[in-house]
Amino acid sequence: MRSKIFKTLDEQLAILEERGLVIQDYDKAKAILFRENYFFINGYRHLFAKSPKNDQFITGTTFDELYATFTFDRSLRNLMFKYLLIIENNIKSIISYQLSRKYGYKEKEYLNPNNFTQDSMKTRQVHDILSKMKRQIRVNGKQHTATSHYLLNYGYIPMWILVKVLSFGIVSELYTILKSEDQLVIADFYHIDTETLGVFLALLSNFRNLCAHEDILYDHRTQRSIPDNKYHYALHIDKTDDEYNYGKNDLFALIIIMKYMLSSEEFSDMMNELSYEIDRLDGIVNVVPLNTILNKIGFPDNWRDIELLD
Fold it and tell me: By the 8 A CB rule, do 304 and 271 touch?
């Protein structure tokens, strides 16, 4: 296998030029590559490729357009992360309220295995998830201000405090081992069925981790897909082989989830911010039509109409 060797900034720009990228300001481009990393910026070249199997840029593609896509994705991650944290806080609050109200506020009470599904097929899963939660108490209990306060002053950590040190991934897993009646109470708050909420939480956890680790977001696809729902139907999203082309495992699927799980005001704010970022990118990128960019993201052409739907 041929190894990758170090390339100077001038050599990096030369590679981009050889592939057809137009560089109008070399000093500016070099400064950007030095600050942002060639590898990360080059990760967005696929949007501007002449074909999926061709490394050559579409004729006329500029460095500014490539960099604008990179910064768009960064803004997109920051935007989505902000609203993902709102949903994370909400679901943690709702789950902790339900478990505390029904099973008690001390960890030896609410973490009792009898409080969770008694399905024999999930016995190991219940044990594993509760072990993860107890480990968080041991590892982080004395490090976090809120949890350490309760440990020092009361000798226990209430569930509504413990969720502060639980990852979204663990909370998502926790939902899957709740008793069906507890899942129903939580899912009813969002006016969706329990199975759908389980899928939503898994995808939210995936997108949250991606945003937190600054991976490429705009064309990300998750392994799982959300169930068909009223928004797919109302937006008349195109189908292929009876499967919706958009809003299943892409960024628009995340928008649909947020439509269900954010308040109407929060969702409206998010859509306004998202519209601004997309319009801003459209004003810079000329060689690729906006609908091509939207479809790459996973958005139907009428994506903004979801805000008007109930």
Answer: yes
CB 45 within 8 A of CB 66: yes
Annotate 73-117 with three-state secondary structure. Answer: HHHHHHHHHHHHHHHHHHHHHHHHHHHHHHHCCCHHHHCCHHHEC
DSSP string for 150-193: HHHHHSS--HHHHGGGS-HHHHHHHHHTB-HHHHHHHHHHTTS-
| Structure confidence by residue, pLDDT tens digits, 42-94 | 999 999 999 888 889 999 999 999 999 999 999 999 999 999 999 999 999 99
pLDDT digits (tens, 9 = 90+) for 172-190: 999 999 999 999 999 999 9
Given a contact cutoff of 8 angstroms between Cβ atoms, the answer to whether 116 and 181 are in contact is: no
Indicate the pTM of the whole model.
0.93
- Amino acid identity, position 112: N
Residue 20 backbone zone (phi > 0: left; psi -120 to 50: alpha; other: beta): left
